[in-house]
Amino acid sequence: MTGQHTTADTVRRPGDVPAGTPLTSLARQRAEAGARLHTEHDRDQGAAVSAALTQLAVGEAIRRTVRSERGSLVAQALRLGATWDQVAAALDTTELAAADDLRVWAEGQRTLYHQHLAQGADVLVGLDEDAYAEVMRQVAFALGRAAAEARDARAEQAPRLRAAVAAAPMLDTVGELRALLEQLPGEMPLSLDDHHRALPGAPDQVHTIHPRLVATVSGPATEAETTRPGLMLTQVYVPFPAEEEEQAAVATRDDLPAYGELPRAAHHLERGELRPGLKDVAEVLAEVAHLVGEVAADFAEHDEDGAQLRVEAKRITHAAARVRRLADEVEEVAE
To answer: Where are the domains positioned within the chain?
Structure first.
């Protein structure tokens, strides 16, 4: 707002500063408030408080102004021939972070332009489609550079990561896990397997934790979409008693089905292995019948509800028996 003037008595919030106030003017107001604070500190507490609040409010106004201008200044520097590494150095950040900052600014400026266009404004502020496309080409270039550098870095470290993980097929203590993590990048994604895994039919087993490298996707559906290695921890049941080498051989198998009946049934059935899959389904139905007819029915408030639940449990039990018989009779499709 042209022509307005703010004083120490009127600036108590950043919003008290009129829009468009030059940074030089704001810097001068903040310096004057600092001088008043120094002068009035021991003489007039009220004036000192006023000067301190003015310094805070004007300082925040300066920060917001500088922040709002960053995108346009980055775009201008790039148009004039600055490189992305120079821009990142000037902002004391990474090229990827600077590019994402520019992208957010460009999207906001395009939205602002279309808002003014829809309102029929005499002066259109923001980025039209051509200007927006030009900025986004710069963004895409930076994202491509960052992705290429990340791929090169991962390619260099991949053998070391594989060796570190392969050297620890089983983790049975916190110390073993810590020793492995100390060899891996701190920013590596970490995930847990959805299911425990086990060797089918093994009578005696104990559990261990098996680490493995998996591919994770970063920046999905963007120009910077790429994959990078992540660490997944799986709880595996291994034979016991057995030599450590034998246990490790089981832990590192990537074809082990899930330990629980339901995910194990899905594992078999999705591979066309009908007989073991249907047997697991029968076990799941039997467990459901137990939960409905004994656990849930015992907690039913009315006897009629409990009786109805027990009737349904018998039906589920019969279904389990039928599925179990089918498991012995069904013929699998030949591969």
So the answer is: 14-82, 170-259, 262-329
> In the 3-class helix/strand/coil scheme, how is 100-150 assigned residue by residue?
HHHHHHHHHHHHHHHHHHHCCCCCCCCCCHHHHHHHHHHHHHHHHHHHHHH
| Number of alpha helices (DSSP H) and beta strands (DSSP E) in the chain | 11, 4
Kindly report whether the global pTM for this prediction surpasses the value 0.70. no
Calculate the CA 309 to chain-centre distance: 43
DSSP string, 19-79: TT--HHHHHHHHHHHHHHHHHHTTT-HHHHHHHHHHHHHHHHHHHHHHHHHHHHHHHHHHH
Omega before 241 within 30 of 0, i.e. cis: yes
pLDDT of residue 332: 64
pLDDT digits (tens, 9 = 90+) for 124-179: 888 999 999 999 999 989 888 877 777 777 777 888 889 999 999 999 999 999 99
